[in-house]
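Obj.: predict assembly geometry.
Materials: sequence records (below).
Method: joint structure prediction, all chains together.
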Amino acid sequence: MILVWLIVILMAGGLLAWLSKKLNPELPRWVALAAVLLDLILIVYVWITLKAPADSAWLLRYEVPWIPQWGVSFSLALDGLSLLMLVLTFFLGLLAVLISWKEIKNKTGFFHFNLLWVLAGITGVFLTMDLFLFYFFWEVMLIPMYFLIGVWGHENRTYAAYKFFLFTQASGLLMLLAILGLYFIYGSETGTYTFNYFDLLNTPLAPAAARLLMFGFLAAFLVKLPVVPFHSWLPDAHSQAPTAGSLILAGLLLKTGAYGLLRFVLPLFPTATVEFAPWAMLLGVIGIIYGAVVAYSQTDLKRLVAYTSVSHMGFVILGVFAFNEWALQGVVMQMIAHGLSTGALFILAGFLYERIHTRDITQMGGFWAKAPKMGVIALVFVMASLGLPGLGNFIAEFLTLVGSWQANNWLTVFATIGIVMATAYSLRIMQKVFYEPGPQHESFRDLNFREMLIAVPMVLGLLWLGLYPQPILNTAKPSINEQLQAYTAPEPTIAEPKTAFHRQPDATIDINQLAINQRAFSNLQIFQSSN
Amino acid sequence: MSQTDFIYLMPLLILTFAVLVSMLVIAAWRNHKIIYVITALSFIAAFGSLYELRTTTAYIIEPMFVIDGFGVFYIGLILLTSLLVSMLSYAYFEQREERKEEYYLLLVLATLGACVLVISTHFASLFLGLEILSISLYALIPYLRTRPRSDEAGIKYLILAAFSSAFMLFGMALVYFSTGTMVFSGLAASIAGMQELPLLLLTGIGMMLIGVGFKLGVVPFHMWTPDVYEGAPAPVTAFIATVSKGGVLGLLIRFFMEVDGFRYPVLVTILTIVAIASMFAGNLLALMQKNVKRILAYSSISHLGYILVAFMAGNQMGVEAVTFYLVAYFITSVGAFGVVAMLSDKNSDAELLEDYKGLLWRRPWTAAVFSAMLLSLAGIPLTAGFVGKFYIIAAGINDQLWLLVVMLVLNSVIGLYYYIKIIAVMFQQPETEREPAIRLRPSVYVASAGTLAVLALLLVYVGVYPTGLVQLIQNVLVSVPEIVSK
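Observations (raw C-alpha cells):
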C-alpha cells in the first residue's frame, strides 16, 4: 500500500499545488516541497527498515485488478533496483523544487503541477510490474515534461519541446506494439491473457519473434537513454529546458531508459539480447566517444553538459549488454552517480544563468576569484564527471569496464579512451568558466544559503557514492541477480552454449573464469578493504 | 404492428412525437427556451425508454428492423450525444439574431434518422434513415445563412450527399437484381455458398460502400469534410462529426457482420486501402491547416481510418474496439467542438489558431478542457482516447493486421504534431491579461460550461477506469449472434 501512496502523494500534491496558487503565488512551492519531502522520507524509511526475504528479491508487492477483461492489473512491486531509483527520484525532485524557488516566477501553480506529475510518472515507471501500466506511466511522464520545456524554457523552447515529444512518443508507440505482441503470444500459448510482468517472463518465444519484440522495446529505451543515432532530441531538450527540467531530464528521464533495459529487455528476451549484444556494445562505445568529442566543441554550457550525458549513457548500454554482475552493478552505480553529477552540472549552469543571463562559456571567465564557494563546488562536480577516484562516477565506470572487459576486450579499450576524453571536456569547463580571465560582470555574487543547501547535499552524495558504495551495491545485488537469472543460473547453460556469452572460439575458458569471478564477487564484499 | 412492437420502437416514436409537438409549439408561440426544453426532455425520455429494452435479446420487426443489444447501445449513444449537442447549442444560438427554434426540430429529426440507421436490416429502412438524416443536415449546415461560408458548405453537402444517395440506391438496385432480396439476412443467405462475388453483385456492394464512404468522410470521398466543418455552425459540426458518422458506422458494422463481407478479399483490399489512405490524407493535410475547425475536420478523416483498422479485424474484439473508440471519439469531438462553440462570438466561430493564442492564461478552465480533448484525440494516457487507441491496436494485432497497425502507429505520431500545435498556441504568452469572461445570462452559461465539465470528467473516467464501459459493450454484444459467432 505504501507504494500506492508514493504515487498518490505526488499526484494529489500536484493538483493541490495548482489550486493553491489562487490563495498565494508562493504556496505551490511549499506544497510541492512538502509532497516530495514526504515521499523521500517514506522511501528512506522503507530502505532502512525493510530487509529482503532470503529467497526473493522483492521487498514489497501490491496488486489490484484494474481492467480484468484484458488482464490488466494495478500491480506495483519494489525491489532493490527500484528502491535505489526511487531514492534518486525523490532526492532530485526535492532539489528541482528548491532550484526553481527563485528561477520560476510566473505561473508557479501550473509549474509545480507539472513537476510533481513528471515525478509521479517516473515513480510509476520504476514501480510498476504490469506492462500496460508501464506504458501508461511511460506516457504520463511525457506531457508534463513537454509543458515544462515548452512553457518555461529558453528562447528556442517550442522547437525543443516538439522534438522531445515526437521522438519519445514515436519510440514509445513501437514499444506498445511489442508489448501487445508479447501479450498475444503469451495469451495464445497459454490461454490466459495478461499483462503481468512475472507471467510474461515465461513467454515461449520463437527466435524471430523474440528479435522483433526486443527491437520494439529497445526502440523506446534506446531513444530515451539516448544511444547515439537517436540522441538528437537530447541536446535541444536539455539546453532549452528550465534548470529543474534539465535536472529531471538528465537525472531521471534518461534513467528510465536504462531501467527499462535492465528490467524488461534483459529478462524477457535472453536469447535475442545475446545476439544483439556486440552491436549494442558497439553503439555504446560510439556514444561514449562521439558524445565526448562533440561535448568538447560546445560553447553553450548546457549543451555541453547534455553531450556529456550522451557520453556517460554509453557506459550504461555497454554495461547492460555485458551480462554480468560486475557490469550491471556498474550500470546501477552509473545511473545514480550520473544522476547526481550531471544534475549538479545543470544546476551549476542554472546558477550561472541566473547571474549573468547567458549560457555561452565564451562570455564567462575568472569566477574563481569572485565566487570561491561556487568554484570549489563546481570543481567537485567537474571532477565527478571526469571520473576521479573517490567520487561516485569512478566506481561506476570502473565496475562497468571490469564487467565489459570480460565480455568484449576491444570495445572496452575504446570505452576507456572515452574516459580520457571526459577529462578533457570536464577540465575545459573549469578552465573557461573559472580560471581564464573573461569579460567583466558587475555584481557577481557567490552562492547564498539556499543555493548552498542545494549544492552541498549533491557534493556529499557524490562523496558517499565514491567512498562507501557498499550499501548501494548490497541493495542492488539481489535484483541484479534476478535480472541475470536467464544468463547465469542453471549449470548446463554455463557449460554448454558457446553462443551464450562469447562468440570467440576460446569461450569455454573465459566462461569458467567468469563463473569463478562471479563466485568470488559474491563472497568477497568488494571495496570493503579499500575503505 | 403489435403492442410489443410499439414498446420496442418507443425511442423512435418519442422523437417523432417531439418533432410534431415542437412544430406546433413554434407555430403557436416562438420561444427559444421552451423549444430547447422540449428537445432536451424528448432526448431524455427517449433515452429513458431504452431502459425497458436493456436486457433485450434480438427482437425482430419484420422485415425492417432488429432491436438487439448492439442497436440499443448505439441508439443510446446517439441520443446522449444529441442531448449534449443540444445543451451546447443553447448558449451558441442564444447570442444570434436568426430564428433559433427550427434548429432544434431539425436536430431531433436528424437524430431520428441516425437511430433508424443502426437498427435497420432492410434496404428500405436503411435508405429512409439515411435520407431523414441527410435532409435534416442539408438544412442544418447552412442554418446561419448570413455567414460568409455557410452557403458554400450547405450547397457542397447537398450536392455530394445527393450524389452519394444516388450511388447507394443504384447499388441497392444492383444487389436486388442479382439476389432478389433487400433484407440483409436474405442477402447473406444467397451469397453464403459463394467463394467469389459475381461482378454485378460486387459492383452493387461497391456502390453502396461509396454511399457509406461519403457519409463517413473517408478518403477518397472526404472532399466535403473540411468545407462543411468550417462552414457549419460549431454545434452542427459536432453533430456531423459524431451522430451522423456513428449512425452510418453502426449500419456498416451490422451489414458487414451479417453478410460476412470479410470473406471476400476484394472487399478487404478495398477497405484496407481506404483505411490507410484516410489515415495518411487526414493527418498530412491537417498539418497544413491554420483553422481549428479544418484541423478537426481532417483529424476526423484520420480517426475514421483508425476505426476502420479495428473494423477490418472483423471479429467480436474488432466490433468491441470500434464501439469503444466511437464512445471515446464522441466524447472528445463533442467536447472539442463544444469549446469552439463556447468561444465563438456573435459574428463568427472561434476557428483561427490566433483566437486560441494564450487561451490558457485568459480562460484556464476552458483551455484545460480543450487540451484534454486534444490529448485524447492524440491518444495520450489518462484520457479515453488512449484506451480506445489501445483497444484498436490490440484488435488489429489480435487479427495480425500488421500493415494496418504499423500505419496506425505511424499516423499517431504525425497526428500528435498538429494536436500539440494547437496546445502550444494556447500556452503562448498572452498579450493581454486575463480577460473578463463575457458572461451571458448565468443560466445559459452554466448549460455550456456544465456540459463541458461533464464531458471532461467522462473523458478522464473512461481513460482511468475503462472496465465499466468494456464490460457494458461486451454484454450488449452478447445478444448479437452475427458478431459473437465470429
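Conclusions so far: The interface with chain A takes residues 361, 375, 380-382, 386, 390, 393-394, 397-398, 405-406, 409, 412-413, 416-417, 420, 424, 427, 465-467, 470-471, 474 of chain B (CB under 8 Å).
To do: check interface contacts against the pulldown list.
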